[in-house]
Amino acid sequence: MAAQKGLGLKYRSTPTSLAAVVASDTVDLPGGSARISVTTAGAYQVIAHSDSAPVTLQLAAGVMHETLIRRVYATGSVATVGIVAHYS
Fold first, then answer.
1. Would the pTM count as exceeding 0.90?
2. Per-domain residue ranges of the chain
C-alpha cells in the first residue's frame, strides 16, 4: 500500500469494502472518509476529508469519484439515497 501525499492515509487502487450511505446534515460516513459513487447524477453537498466547510460537487452517476469524502449532506444534494462509500 502507498500513502496518499499529505493525508497520511493508506489506500489501495481497488476498494476492499463498500457501504450504503444515507446523506445526513449531521453524521459523517460510517467508516470514515471514503471515495463515493452515486446512482443519481447531479449536485451533492459534501465535506472532503481534510475540510471543515461543505462544498457542492457535480457528480456523475455510476462512477467512483476519487476525492475522499467524510460527509454527504442531505440538504443541497440531488439525492439522499443511492450513495455508496468505497473503502480501501
1. no
2. 2-87
